[in-house]
Amino acid sequence: MKKHIVIIVISVLAIFLSINNIQAEESSLPEAEIIVDGRPHKTKYLMRNGHLLVPALFLKHTGVSVNRNHQYQSVVLSFEEKLFALPINKKFSDDYISKVKKWVRFPLVTNTIEIDGDIYVPLVDIASKFGMSVAYSPQLRRTEISSNIRSPHGFVRRGSPEHKRIALTFDDGPDPHYTPQILDILKEKNVRATFFVLGNQVERYPKVLQRIVNEGHAIGNHTWSHPNLPRVMTQQVIEEIQTTQNIIEKTVGRRSDLFRAPYGAVTKADALLLEGMGMRTIGWTVDTLDWSGLSGNEIVSIVLRDISPGGIILQHNFEPHRQDARLLDGTVEALPRIIDELRAEGYHFVTIQTLLTK
Ligand code: ZN
User: Fold this and answer.
1) According to the model, what pLDDT value does residue 321 have?
2) Ligand 1 geometric centre to CA of 63 (Å)
3) Measured in angstroms, how far is the CA atom of residue 259 from the centroid of ligand 1?
């Protein structure tokens, strides 16, 4: 009897070890650049029986929505009336035929699989379902996808270069430490800025957001919890944006049509979604890198070096934690000097809304 138990223990251990091995293998999956509509995107991939599999989320770069259906253990890919559900560990997809309003099962070249939380799907199969073309150039050793999905036009990186107008922007607040110091300086200098706020920070510090609005500054949506959007399922992207819109409205009685993506990272699918919500996604022309703990002097010299008419300056007002307690001291130090020096050069500070008017 004891012998049996030992054997069972050993075999369970062996299975456990082999599972661990698979995970170890996964984290070392190779990466490749795949060109989507002319733009390169890095992705992990794996080859199986001669078929290229990529994480389903990679498809967001083509404009396709990607969601997970936990009830059916599947990943669901959709664009307009096209809708495909790929159950994990199965070699088929269930395709929704909108004309007859029915699901029909079609074989795939290989199984959809889940590794370390990522669902890998056969790229060529999926692309052809959406009517995309995929080409592999053996000389360049490069895969290129042409999605046939239109590009979004809601992304704004700068204002018109015809006016000497520029915008100061602050991301990741509101917080009780840096935001009031920044607001004091802006008030003293009579400057209006734009704050891209996080929903969960608004929930904690509603009074700070009210002060931002009362003092004439503009606000924008920076998601609820600052996820890297390319790594997030479409439904969660929608929730991140909508919950933040709701708490902004609840706190200050109005919504904003401005959005800034965490890390500036949006896929085509996210950008199309934001456009559909009537929002403009705002980038920047001057990255102060203030979050990395630069001194006031360093920040001022970056701004003076990179500024141009219509420019948008990126700074931060996140909440200090023990390990980064004084990380943004340079931001506060630099601010009055940025304002004075750029005014001396003839620049006017405006909100993003004003910057984007003709
Ligand atoms: Zn941010």
Assistant:
1) 83
2) 23
3) 11
Distance CA 112, CA 97 (A): 21
Catalytic residue among 41, 217, 222, 316: 316
Tell me whether residue 340 is one of the annotated catalytic residues: no
DSSP structural state of residue 101 = T
Q: What's CA 255's distance to the chain center, in Å?
A: 20
Rounded CA gap, 270 and 308, in Å? 29
Please write the tens of the pLDDT for every residue from 288-324: 999 999 999 999 999 999 999 999 999 999 988 867 6
Structure tokens of 125?
Answer: 């199969």
Using the mean position of ligand 1's atoms as its centre, give its distance from the Cα of residue 222 in Å. 7
d(CA 123, CA 115): 16
Active-site choice (37, 61, 125, 171): 171
**Residue 9 pLDDT:** 42
Q: What are φ and ψ of residue 332, in 5° steps?
A: -70, -40
What is the rounded distance in angstroms from the CA atom of residue 92 to the CA atom of residue 250?
45
Helical pair 234-252 and 206-214, crossing angle rounded to 10 deg: 70
Phi first, then psi: give them for residue 262, nearest 5 degrees.
-55, 135
Contact present, 256 and 234 (Cβ < 8 Å): no
Phi and psi torsions of 46, nearest 5°: -145, 155
Calculate how far, in angstroms, residue 226's C-alpha sits from the geometric centre of ligand 1: 6
Check residue 27 and give its pLDDT. 57
The three-state (H, E, C) secondary structure of 199-225, written as one string: HHHHHHCHHHHHHHHHCCCEEEECCCC
Running DSSP on this structure, what letter comes out for residue 275? H
Task: Note residues around ion ligand 1 (Cβ under 5 angstroms).
Answer: 171-172, 262
**316 has catalytic annotation:** yes
Backbone angles phi, psi at 165, to 5 degrees: -105, 145
Tokens 């809601």, residue located: 154
What is the whole-number distance in angstroms between the Cα of residue 102 and the centre of ligand 1? Answer: 42
pLDDT averages per 10-residue partition of the chain, 358 residues? 44 40 58 94 93 97 97 96 96 94 96 95 96 89 92 91 97 97 98 98 98 98 98 98 98 97 97 96 97 96 98 95 83 98 98 94
Span from the CA of 263 to the centroid of ligand 1 (angstroms): 6
For residue 237, how far is its CA from the centre of ligand 1 (angstroms)?
15
